[in-house]
Amino acid sequence: MTITGFNTLRSMKWLARRFYSMRPDQILYSKEVLQAKENANPVVALESTIITHGMPYPANLEMAKTVEQIIRENGAVPATVAIVNGNCHVGLNDSQLEILAQTGTKSHKTSRRDLAVVIARKLTGGTTVSGTMVLAHAAGIKVFVTGGIGGVHREGEHTMDISADLIELGRTPLAVVCAGSKSILDIQRTMEVLETNGVTVTTMGETGVQIPAFYARESGVLSPFNSPTITDVANLVYTNNILGLKSGTLICVPIPHEHAIPSSFINNIIDNALAKAKKLDIKGKDCTPFLLKEIAEATKGLSLKANIELVYHNAKVGSQIAMELAMLSKANLGTVHSRGLINHQSPVQSSILSPICPSSSKKHISSTPIPLAIIGSVAIDYTCTASSSPLSLHTSHTGSITRTVGGVGLNLARSAFNSGSMSVELLTARGKDRDGQWLESEILRKGFGKTSYLISEKHETAKYVAVHDGKGDLVVAVADMAIVEDMAEQVRDFIVPKQPRWIAMDGNLGSKTMTEIVSVAKEINSKVFFEPTSVPKSIRPLQIRNLGVYPNHSIHAVSPNAFELSAMFLSASDTGLFERNDWWEALNSLHLLQDFRNDVELFLSRHKEIAHLGPQGLIQQATHLLLFMPAIFLKLGSLGVLAFRIIPSERNIVSMTTSKILAHGKTSDLVIDYFPAVEQISQDSIVSVTGAGDSFAGSLLHDFSGREDSLFEDLEEMMERAQKAAVRALKSMDAVVSS
């Protein structure tokens, strides 16, 4: 028999040698794991024998998916390890998990010894602790979570039945999180073998804690070391790695009290099961599955429930260890800037900020130009929705609180990316804290494009807390976005190499950062879009130093709501922007005479739903501001959108229609378009208003960035897409929803 030119024996020997120093490129990674590896984000390995041989289908599938979700919820990325048709997988998608779970015991229980055979013969195998350790280490993973490890079997001094797990722990530098060795084993002798192999063993708990015995919290065997905190464990693992020790670290985590089985009760059942196995002459790798089945039957399923719960608990603890370890590693590998910020590779093909690239000569630009770059916030959004309406002040209310990934900058990027296939890159900042780690991992999991992070030791990760009444309307919100206000020093390094067609900035940035953005944008002929974010922050671009006036404007488009527009108008008026000579010259060039005023009145009379905008002064306010930002997309909620634009006369805009006002100037025309709401949404259908405006703006950015001069084209289709994006967001707890 031959396999790809080798006879079976030679092939197995060759594969065995290769596995001893296995290369990462011999492994198939899931997309989620690959992205995490590329960006040095925490990954937690999981074995697959528990799926194939630990419990029946579909309980095994449900358990596997739950464990993976627990790991994600705690900020890490799960990587279930298995061999499928001879291919080594680190990270499985849902369909692969389903296949593995259904295959069950028909697959091969695969330890280090079996790897070459299973791969050479293109079989499917569930990896044991030792088999998983080999592949996880080859993949560069540092933390591995399992239920319990193998060990020295009872009477092992006569049978020499010692699990390969113990030998693997002595030669593979991986942190293994477990609930101790299985209760069916000789725990005292297991500890002796681990000591002989140089394995550091620590148990979560205070001094004097015992090694847990899987189902039971105590085994009667003292732990060599104890770790009172997750941080202590991470320090042990990190130190083991930097010392270059080739041995692993075993972290024992006692099963939670509420799920533990008393040792006296479980030991009697184990003794009976061992006696039965001896009588039936069951040995080797068949012994453990037999004993576990006997114990499950004797405890009427109690042991299986305990097994599942301890795995869930280990997954949580292991994820926290992986997070701490990743933070520890990044803190020692990051590049520290003068302001205490650390550049760090970030989710989905992210990049460390490039060196300053001279903007005066494009021959120095090494990167391929991109359509859209966004500079703004990422944040953890807490949405509090009360059960009743209206809300009373100075008291608490019943309701629900949800935590999601948000931030205006991120929402814009996700919405633009979801609107079609387009390269989007985001510059943002997060804290060097657990919230920041969780946020980064969630963004990685959702995926949208490229992100560059500045990691701050001075500020915490941004947070946004919104309180909604029972109807879903926003009552009040508090935003802590200090971390993203000042990124001026990093703007040039981020923008210039990318040569974006459009640059979007959100209102959380400070005026100093905005000034630098518009300055760099002018140098490389990029257009600038501003999303106001909130009423207080909407005025920030008006504080930009040397703010340009049309046709030398600094900002090309904005998307305020009515309150933000009024705040911007008042700020510009109070600071004397409407008294500048260049503003008056630009206004006079538009020829806004009495005919234009008559057209506005006629226009409003035809659209009764927005007739109130005239008396409120919003048309006048937008027209004044238009000379500083010659495209204003006024969001009117359930009434739709009113678009104001200054367009070069050579674009030959059609004459005024029932939904359009047109004023011809010297060299440019002023155009006002009305776009009614694409869908009327009942109050019962609104889940959250958070993100609707960002989804609208992100969709517009996608269309504007897609091709040159799209800002001057007919807007009907663009507005329909943008409003539909906002509607999807209104009907979901997620701030941005894919079409």
Poorly predicted regions are 1-21, 333-367
* Radius of gyration, whole Å: 31 Å
Give the biggest sheet: 11 strands, mixed
Shape: elongated
Portion in strands: 15-25%
What fold name goes in the CATH topology slot of the largest domain? UDP-N-acetylmuramoyl-L-alanine:D-glutamate ligase
Task: State the domain count.
Answer: 2
The CATH superfamily of the largest domain turns out to be Ribokinase
| CATH architecture identity of the largest domain | 3-Layer(aba) Sandwich
Q: SS-based structural class?
A: alpha/beta
C-alpha termini separation:
53 Å
The DSSP helix count reads 26
Q: Give the C-level CATH assignment of the largest domain.
A: Alpha Beta
Instruction: Name the average pLDDT.
Output: 84
Number of separate strands: 29
Helix share bin: 25-40%
Task: Explain how this protein is built.
By secondary structure, this protein is an alpha/beta fold. It folds into 2 domains: 2-164 and 253-330, 3-Layer(aba) Sandwich (Indigoidine synthase fold); 334-730, UDP-N-acetylmuramoyl-L-alanine:D-glutamate ligase. The protein is 39% helix and 19% strand. The chain is built from 26 helices and 29 strands. Strands 3, 4, 5, 6, 7, 8, 9, 10, 11, 12 and 13 form an 11-stranded mixed sheet that branches. Strands 14-15-20-19-16-23-24-25 form an 8-stranded mixed sheet, with helices on both faces. A 4-stranded mixed sheet has the order 18-17-21-22. β21 and β22 form a beta hairpin. α1 (8-20) packs across α6 (112-120), α4 (59-73) packs antiparallel against α5 (94-103) and α15 (408-418) packs across α25 (692-706). The longest helix is centred in the middle third of the chain and has 32 residues, at 302-333. The radius of gyration is 31 Å and the shape is elongated. The relative contact order is 0.07. Residues 1-21 and 333-367 have low confidence and may be disordered. One of its GO terms (cellular component) is cytoplasm. This is Pseudouridine-metabolizing bifunctional protein. Residues 372-573 form the Carbohydrate kinase PfkB domain. It comes from Neolecta irregularis (strain DAH-3).
